[in-house]
Amino acid sequence: MSTVDTSALIENRSLEEKFDPEMRFRPLLPGTAWLVAGLLLVLSLFHYYTAGFGLLREATHRGIHMAFVLGLIFLVFSAFKTDQDRIAPSNLWRPGGISLIDWVMAIAVAIASLYVPWIFNDLAFRVGNPTLMDVAMGTTLIVLLLEATRRSVGWPLPVISIGMMLYAYFGPSMPGILQHPGASWSNIVNHLYLTSQGIYGIALGVVATYVFHYVLFGVLATRVGLGKLFIDLATCVAGRYAGGPAKVSIFGSALFGMISGSSIANTVTVGSLTIPAMIRVGYKRHFAAAVESAASTGGQITPPIMGAAAFLMVEFLNISYQTVILAALVPAFMHFFGVFMQVHFEAKRAGLRGLPAEELPNARKVIREGWQTIMPLAVLLMVLFSGFTPYLAAFWGITACIVVGVSRVPAITLGFLAAIAIAIATGFLTQLVFSLPALLFVTGLMIYAYVKSDEGKAKVIDLIDAFVVGAKYAIGVGAAAATVGIIVGIVTLTGVGFKISFIVTSFAAQMAQAVGDILPAGLMEAKALTLLFTLAMTAIVCILLGCGVPTTANYIIMVTVAAPALVLLGVQPIVAHFFVFYYGVLADITPPVALAAYAGASMAGADPFKTGNTAFRLGLGKALVPFVFVYGPAMLIVTPDFTWASFLLVTGGAIAGILCLSMAFAGYALTEMRAWERWLIGIAALPIIAPDLQTTLVGLALATPVLVSQVIKARGRMASVPA
């Protein structure tokens, strides 16, 4: 396994814990820490094994996952922030340094989580007619789940869930269209606890089936050196050019985001290298932090790993993960392209240099020393695009990480890759026929490496630690997914989702009528205006909700409540889902709670709010592109009405528009821009981006005077330079 700077790793983890609520673990006494690490390791091994040998019965698999996740949360998260940073002594009331109440809650929530799988054979007779024990167990789980989510994620999600349950209970007292017959507490518990439409629903299932495996793969791939390889390759490609470290940040974040799927983890990992380098070549501190955080938010939208919401999309829309990956390609490119062009123009305007030659790694040496680390990603993609399930692809990706991390012997690496290719080609890569030999092989390889030398022991220990850390990364999102199941369950129980959709579309129609009376006749149809206002309101709610709710929970809530409104207006389902997904991710760099931007600001010693504002401006391409693919869905490639002509029109217009907008923000194209040039080309960018040929041509006509002026000034400047 590649050597990792231990001090840098510890510093990165501390930054993640500071800015990511899901990573703020309390310090533990040695004995308790070993127990918790053991439970985390068992959780990872459970998911690794089931990914390769077949999932358990749905309720059993989800119940075991939730029992571990929620039980561990009460052990690793303190009830109050004041206790989060100190090790408590062990005594009668604090066994192992953890409150006796926390131990009781951890055991109780585990029992309540496993109760449904235990009574599964009788569940058909219980649904709709729960026993007193069912209601007691369900109430226990709901209360402790809300508390676990509060500790690991924060207050907003539990508050929303409590509000939804109160809405279900007091339905007859609700005003107007929101009124409904109401439900007793027994009925609420029955729906949320005993059916698959509540806590044990799709959200928890996706996290337990897909997300956990890919989080674990990302941690392992980083440990074996894939992240370092990506950053070194990005430095080789972009480091020498103007403002080199900022461009390295963008390329590195894009590549690292392929295996990370986390904005904050991406920011602190890549930023630990790029932010100091950006400051050193002349970028302002807040701009350096903003570049890294803006680029890092692309991690959740960059195939093949993406964020947890991408896997949820697979289940909600009943499509393959390969389809989601294909749909995400162009919008992800647009995000990084927008950040890159603003960084480029800023560097040219300020006259910033690239990295000196002595600081650039040798590309041949980087590839020669690190080529093996790309194998896990290659294996994962090879299995995934051969038609196998995403979790089986994750199993083979994780297995490849173990092989690469422990052996680092080219013959073994190539042999393992060849074996996978032969198994796929001959159709033997099933969850039983080929998984057992692979598991025995990696187990033997780890034992051999451990007993052979001290270096081998260190590699195996580091590998085990990666399994523990991978489980730590996933427990917060597991609690959030289960809590979102409460919200989704109340929506299906009361039908409030359709009511909210009706309210939103009705309000948007009223606004469209008011604006339509002002606009010139025929400029925009009423239906198009209604859709525009609905999209704007949905985007604002996504960003506001994202200020206090993780991206995954944000996506599920908005898909449940807002996406139906978009579908009612004729938006294709996959387009509607991508729209709310992208705006949920954008919250990570949108003040006042821009967690990724604040993490970058901390690393740069910059003002957090100023960093957040700049990061939002740099990520504006991500804010505009969702509107583009709603009106021009060909950008997503996989839509039914896709044609290459419409794809080229939509994509070409978006690229040109983002380019013009980047010039306007930076105040530079070929030379410095005057105020009128910045305003005109900024205004022209919007019609250029619009996926309509006539509108795009109007925008290009508006931008032409600015571009001509820039060419004339650039030629004049070149002519004035002495030969």
Considering the chains and any ligands shown, give keywords for the structure.
transmembrane helix; TRAP_DctM-Dct_fused; single chain; membrane; disordered N terminus; transmembrane transporter activity; 32 helices; 74% helix; mainly alpha; 723 residues
Shape: globular
Helix content: over 70%
Biggest sheet architecture: none
- Span between termini: 55 Å
From the alpha-carbon coordinates, what is the Rg to the nearest angstrom?
Answer: 26 Å
Query: Can you count the beta strands?
Result: 0
Described by its quaternary structure, the protein is: single chain
| Tally of contiguous helical segments | 32
Beta-strand portion reads under 5%
Structural class from helices and strands?
Answer: mainly alpha
Mean pLDDT: 86
Which residues form runs of ≥5 with pLDDT under 50?
1-7
